[in-house]
Amino acid sequence: AQSVTQLGSHVSVSEGALVLLRCNYSSSVPPYLFWYVQYPNQGLQLLLKYTTGATLVKGINGFEAEFKKSETSFHLTKPSAHMSDAAEYFCAVSDRGGYNKLIFGAGTRLAVHP
Amino acid sequence: DAGVIQSPRHEVTEMGQEVTLRCKPISGHDYLFWYRQTMMRGLELLIYFNNNVPIDDSGMPEDRFSAKMPNASFSTLKIQPSEPRDSAVYFCASSLLRQGTDGYTFGSGTRLTVV
Fold first, then answer.
1. B103 vs A92: CB contact, 8 Å cut-off?
2. Closest CA–CA distance from residue B75 to any residue of chain A (Å)
3. How would you list the strands of the sheet with A3-7, edge to edge?
4. Tens of pLDDT, residue by residue, chain A (114 residues)
5. How far off is chain B from A22, nearest CA to CA, in Å?
6. Can you tell me the distance from the alpha carbon of B50 to that of B56, in angstroms, rounded to the nearest whole number?
7. DSSP alpha helices (H): ranges in chain B?
8. Phi, psi dihedral angles at B81 (to 5 degrees)
């Protein structure tokens, strides 16, 4: 069965610092991978996704993630944090051959300090 | 498109009352999902539909919960009778299957409080 592990339920960075949110997955075959962001009192928004091709994926708001098959990881990064990045981030995995069902990680809450 | 629309945004009800949450998916999307989000359990998939047919309801916590999708543009999640432990944010999401690549579009959620 597929699963997603997000390391660190809370991450705190200073404005302008590197953001690194970690995600590892468990799957018998390379899955589709997603990052979603949830701002307070809102639904989840798709940040970026990996399906096939280039393993470095760029998303909205300057975020990017790299699929590393050997490490079964899909970590999310942003070179310079902005106050507006404060939110909760969810990593998710989808079965390539299945019913498009997404399995979400537990989420990482990102705080950005001035 | 206006996105996935959920109503109401907030619902406060007394224990034992029936609660109905509503969702309008994006036009043309053939999958619809109901999730529940709590601090303790995170995001839980309750049930999902494909072309209005329930595919997997294994996440529905108990018989008090039921979901329907009478047509492609409307779904409901009903809790009867409601209990305080049902307090959570309930999200509806829809997607268009393209070999699983599209991800979901989420609604803004319904915050349910059962007192």
1. yes
2. 17
3. A3-7, A19-26, A73-78, A64-68, A56-58
4. 778 999 999 999 999 999 999 999 987 777 889 999 999 888 899 999 998 888 999 999 999 999 999 999 999 999 999 999 999 999 998 876 655 678 889 999 999 999
5. 17
6. 10
7. none
8. -80, 155
